[in-house]
Design a protein that fits this description.
alpha+beta; three-stranded antiparallel sheet; about 15% helix; 2 domains; 1 helix
Amino acid sequence: MPLFDFHCSACNKSLELLVKSDAKPVCPDCGAELAKLVSCPVAPGGSAAIIASARRRAASEGHFSNYKPSERPRGK
């Protein structure tokens, strides 16, 4: 079930609810029907900082599975 943003025009509150896409939720405070809001999508976590952190952790654990073959340390 996806998480949606809703707005209650009766009590002027905005909230997030975990509902089925075809459900018609009501406000938990006043019982009025909620209007679904357009949510801003979140970009996937592909930033350089996240990748560098994952690589450091993998190297500290002794495996290099998330490195390209050209980036892996050469064996002696």
